[in-house]
């Protein structure tokens, strides 16, 4: 990110007088004070503070130093960080009509995200129509229809990890992409290096990057300047981002259409069901472009986030063998030894479910929500929120609040199984998938997917620390990438079957399922 910071600072200095004058013109009388904030620097305001929020310690500092709501200002744009769950509910849910849109970012226009990706769409008829149509297939009552492919996927993942434990990261990516592509587009991913696995990785990274700080978002005129000028490096980034965006948007649906028309494949996919629902009801809004947007949305939003959650699970089991042992004891007690868990068993697996929740909390998939924007001046808890402010939910700081989760650095699933009359802490799922009208439509699918994967891996595998050349265990470091969707930095572990009986059962079951699916 260094080159972008240098570019931004260069152009900021050149256009400082413009920024200052624009800030002066936007001043207004206000009844309430703005939320607390760090001290501003001349010209650049809180730019460095905002850029530092890519670091988790800075996100924790926003809450510990300034309280439940924080204000940063950069070039006349107000940024609000919500560090309290109730504040997030009050604004994103109870006042959702005011806080459900997205800020207009020129980089989203240049890269094409604003034409199709739901994460960039403003709140309006197109977004509501898209979410309404998807709700039919992703609401809680619809999730059992996915239990069979999710279970089969979990079985194959366990077998792949046992066969190639040293490649567990690639095996997880392949497994998740395979399931999502099969459900959305009826496409079967055969190899780990299938191009569709790479498309989603590149797309998620490019979209997250476009949401970062680019001066052109505050000074749109910059997009029309020659690319050879200093500070115009964003144009090259946008050119590459556009290619990635269009690949994610168009290629999956083009592949589905070709296979469906030529081979009859994918007739039970979500893409086919959406097309059929539009024809059956005469709904002209459900055309091929709509289906391409809807299915690519699920493919883009679901694949990478689920990979992150499963890799965090493997890291946690490597570091906390006592947690794994207790979960396996629960499985053996509830469903019996050498038996594969099913969705009927999951409600009885309290500790396994607590592990799933603790994975979400301990190393949440994203540290900040996607940006919201408020359309009119507002007030909350005695603070003034100016219209057009960009508002974030500081998810990381909430999950690291010791008043909610004692010893937040430790992985403690037991915190979600209170004893006696104790109230459990905030369920991470209530905020990890966002809140209000922009909550993730695939939340229930993702929860059932990760739950059956984790339960199956615990029932069939032992996940342990790798051993170095000196016979000593290698203790992985808890380090994550700085991307929007966080992944553990590659680490080593060993994965092997709990016993030969369960391995034999696993492979026999996979063979039977494969035959019945063909």
Automatic annotation (TrEMBL):
Q: Which UniProt keywords apply?
A: Heme, Iron, Metal-binding, Monooxygenase, Oxidoreductase
MF GO annotations: heme binding; iron ion binding; monooxygenase activity; oxidoreductase activity, acting on paired donors, with incorporation or reduction of molecular oxygen
UniProt xrefs under InterPro entries: Cyt_P450 (IPR001128), Cyt_P450_CS (IPR017972), Cyt_P450_E_grp-I (IPR002401), Cyt_P450_sf (IPR036396), Cytochrome_P450_fung (IPR050364)
Q: State where heme binds.
A: 440
Q: In which pathway does it act?
A: Secondary metabolite biosynthesis
* Coiled-coil annotated spans: none
Q: Which PROSITE patterns match?
A: CYTOCHROME_P450
**Family of this protein:** Belongs to the cytochrome P450 family.
Mind telling me which PANTHER family this protein's record contains? Answer: P450, PUTATIVE (EUROFUNG)-RELATED (PTHR46300:SF7), P450, PUTATIVE (EUROFUNG)-RELATED-RELATED (PTHR46300)
Under what name is this protein listed?
Cytochrome P450
